[in-house]
Amino acid sequence: MPSWLEGYGLPIVEAMACKKPVIVLADSHIPWEIKSRCIIVENLELPLGNENYLSNLLLHTNTELNYHWAKSHNWDKSVDKYLELYREIIKS
Question: Domain boundaries in the chain?
């Protein structure tokens, strides 16, 4: 799913949670915390048009590390953080 702009990058994190490597464009507006875990390219023509180039890029992607990182970003944790934030706001 190519995109040039992602708020948080949830589709990217979901792909990582499925142990899939992710290719993003260098000029895409994606949070660096997520973008830095991806394969960053200047354009899609070279990796998608050259199987050897793409294979080489994929060899240098740590999908297992990204998988564990992505799994730490789940909805239950997000809900807990929002509830905590709302409780703090209500107390104020």
Answer: 10-91
